[in-house]
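Dear Dr. H.,

I hope your travels went smoothly. While you were away I took the liberty of generating a structure for the chain from your last submission, since the lab meeting agenda had it listed for discussion. I wanted you to have the full record in hand beforehand rather than looking at slides cold. The sequence, exactly as received, is reproduced here:
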Amino acid sequence: MSKQFIIGLIAGVVICGVVGGLIGLSMVGKKATVEPPDWETYLITKLKNLEIPESPAPTIPIGTTDEDLLQGGEHYNHHCAVCHDLEGDADSAFAKGFYPPVSDLTSENVQRYSDQQLKWIVDNGIRYTGMPGWNGIIDDVTQWKIVHYMRALANPEKAGQLEAILKERGLWKALAPVDEHHEPEEAAEHEHPEGEHHH
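The corresponding predicted structure, in token form, is as follows:
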């Protein structure tokens, strides 16, 4: 091994140790409801982005027709909206009670992920964030439809169209996630009144 390589390796270990120590110290005794400093948010986001791999492409075509998106929306509202909100913007007191905060799915940072990365997150979750992995609970085809619906949430016009149809079908409601999502009467419903938003 060259001297330059050894010096680089030592420097890398020291830098990682310092960064890890700073993040660790910043979390000690801190409340989940207290907004973290900008530098901590920046570092955590960068590290998280580096750690999320690409999920394999679907083995069967997953359509993005309006009906596919609506099916994705139904499952999203059932499994995801309790934390991310119906609009995907995580703009509620419940969402803000998490640390790290619940991700705003309409944000540039989330939308920057590839479809394969978003699918990986839905499937596997993200450790220490409160984001669960849905592998074994939601099948692959449905997960892809949720990913496509998450894309639609970032398009205000498309999101509005899908919202109107889901309301007509009685599916514009956040439900406590359970295995049998087609039996909402058994789940705790949290529906926003017609035309009323939580912003």
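Two observations you may find useful: The two ends are 58 Å apart (CA to CA). Residues 34 and 194 are 32 Å apart (CA to CA).

With kind regards,
E. W.
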